[in-house]
Amino acid sequence: MCGIVGHLGPSDSVEVVMEGLRRLEYRGYDSAGVTFINESGELKTYKKTGKIEKLTELISNVDTHSMVSIGHTRWATHGGVTDFNSHPHAFEKLSMVHNGIIENADELRDELIAKGYNFKSETDSEVFLMLVNDLKKSMPLKEAILKGFTRVTGNSAFVFISEEEKEIFAIKRAAPLVCGTHYTKSQAVVSSDPYALAGAADRIYFPEDGILCHLSVGNKELIAFYDSEGKPSKAYQSKKQDMQVDPSDKGDFEHYMLKEIYEQPGLIRALCQYYFNGDGKEALAAMADLNPSRFHITACGTAFYAGLVVRDFIEAINRIPCSFELASEFRYRNPILEKNDIGLFISQSGETADTLAGQEECKEQNAKTVSLVNVEGSSLYRACDHNLLIRAGVEIGVASTKAFTQMGLTGRLLAHALSGDLDNSVKQTELTDRFELLAERIDKLLEEVDKIKAIAEEIYNKKGYFFTGRGRYFPVALEGALKLKEIAYVHAEGYAAGELKHGPIALIDEDMVNIALVGPELKEKTISNIQEIKARKGIIVGIGPKDNSLMKISDYFLELNFDGLEELSPLYINVVNQLLSYYMAKFKGTDIDKPRNLAKSVTVE
Ligand code: F6R
Q: Does residue 302 sit in the same domain as residue 419?
């Protein structure tokens, strides 16, 4: 959940690291820090609670000229949000940043205290720094890290910088870590997220667990990899060429979230192109041979709700049963995986710890795994037997928007590919046209965004919110409520419209809002459910097709044109939810791109 960046190059190392940290701030924003080796060859560490601007202020009058540095943005796990607990942690000639949890930290700390070590922080991270420091007394740093790493349990990534070696070492277990080099800039970088490497590296490597990454000017390629015994090894090299794109620019948008909502029509249009005429062709074609008897769709949060949309597609088109599981529960339920069952894992980051654990469970039970994932080369991507990239581009807003839409659409392509009907150019054209129609409808929605903004202004200060929908609109009711909770800090629930009367209707009064998602299917039944809420004085926001009863019953109404969208219509209505949440949060004045307590990539269980 924390962001890590390390850099080694001819100059301005701290600048590269700070830029990387700014990009990764969405991962955690309790504190930030940096360690560099100054021109006199000494390690210097600066760290501060709060957002990166605080750190920028702290080092504004410091000479940060350096060729080697590491930095960190923290999402606190062990120890409060204090300067001492911030990273990097430094001791004598060594400094380190950490992302993850050391499960046996207490035991190791006691051992080190008994040897005379004093700890400055309450963190588990400092324990590994001290351990390596201790081992380093009797062996080179490289060996000390490898040996120390065998003693810590839990999922972690560590990056070290040493005053003596003036080099960087990094190692990880079940936590994201990516390295890269830039040939013309003669620099090497390491991070917890490929996004930090955009523009700074043109070769990207994803090391496996336990592989030590060594960034040094002494290495022929600036980076070398070693296995647990210290022997030269390799890392997966990404095929992705578009890491040059600088995605850090919000353009004219006030927030990344809004920018990402607006990117959706373009991404939708590009998806068919990628899978029918571009690099995705082969991966999609391979789906036709899978022949699963059941899918276990497993994911977290927004990706999980996208999984429900995908389930509806697969069950409707392929009549293959899908069970769906929250990744955090999946492996603890001792899931029944039968021969020919396939685990379908959905993730934007490809680094969500719970999702990765679910994938591992499938692997252990010899089930094939397929991912719908955004980050090529991520841990999930490397672990699965097959991958379909969702092609959402970099998503910075902590609240996921465009990834949801792309997951749904990639799932749609998967469903068609499974049935083998994508070999046929007529079907390809039909689908391309359907996707185009969705993109056009979203374009139109964005042109008329003021209507949504006006509704948001009327309802943002109410007591609570129920997003309701039936059938194919139920998953987006769940997703709509999640979005609103995340960024507007209000209580919202997603409910199947027909289920409200079985309990939650007790909550309805004149200060509760029902955001009723109504499509052409099950319209009459859904309107009856809205009547039940209206009868109890609930405030109705009707979102649906032109319909007299719906318009009459709604306190606020947004008309949508569903013609021709059919099964893609939940993805259309979901964009209304995204915009409604965005503007409600804006009226409330919350930190939309970095909502409190959240982190973009949840790499702890
Ligand atoms: C919600 C959100 C989270 C993620 C979840 C899974 O807006 O962003 O609920 O969807 O943490 O993350 P990924 O998709 O990276 O596995």
A: yes
